[in-house]
Amino acid sequence: MPINLVKGQRVEIGLSKLTVEMGWKVNPNAKPPYDLDASTFLLRENGQIGEEIDFVFYGSPNTIGTPEGKRPVSADGSVLGSIDDLGDDDDNSGVGEETIDVDLSKTNPLIKEIIFTASIYWGKGAPSERYNFGQVRDAYILIRNAQTGEEICRYDLDEDFSTEKGVEFGRLYRRGNAWKFEAVGIPYADGLEPIVRKYASKFM
């Protein structure tokens, strides 16, 4: 049975190959349309990324070809980001999700934490204050066994972030030789920028 986490709860991950899925439901009739972009930060002991490409996001210059298309990848190859474009909602249901593949056996020993975030992106013409997590429903993050598809744990964001445009969903972190996952749920008013400032300040 998967473990349903509450904010701040932690669980040990006894696997090396994981699939991290973040999902949500947006308003499919919004004009202009908006969606959520997943971003991942691989942090060192000082709580910062050590290389610019350890900020794994849709616009990363470091990509790898896959059958699905080009995907952003971390410097050590342990984190394979999602393919993203504006409007993952292909069936007009409002439901979207992004998948990140993680192989902890490849993780650089200097990496101590892997942070998973999502921020709202909208098309041209939308006032910056229009979209926030108040228009996002049923947001969650879950971890699966990448080899079997079995769901290991899940965290549903049940707070109403009515003015925020970015959220830190969860993190993987080392404790000795083991990896654990923590349900985080920290909101950011100005979307991705303050998260980048927090974890990648020297590259701004």
Sketch the topology as an H/E string, one letter per element. EEEEEEEEEEEEEEH
The rough form would be described as: globular
DSSP strand content:
over 45%
- Number of alpha- plus pi-helical segments: 1
- Mean model confidence by pLDDT: 88
Please give the number of β-strands.
Answer: 14
Spans with pLDDT under 50 lasting ≥5 residues? 85-91
Tell me the distance between the termini.
42 Å
CA radius of gyration: 16 Å
Proportion in helices: under 10%
Largest sheet: 6 strands, mixed
The structure class reads mainly beta
Strand order of the largest sheet: 1-12-11-3-9-8
What features would you describe in this structure?
This protein is mostly beta strands. It contains 1 helix and 14 strands; from the N terminus they run E-E-E-E-E-E-E-E-E-E-E-E-E-E-H. A 6-stranded mixed beta sheet has the order 1-12-11-3-9-8, with no helix packed on it. The protein has a 6-stranded antiparallel beta sheet with strand order 2-14-13-10-4-5. A hairpin with a 2-residue loop joins strand 6 and strand 7.
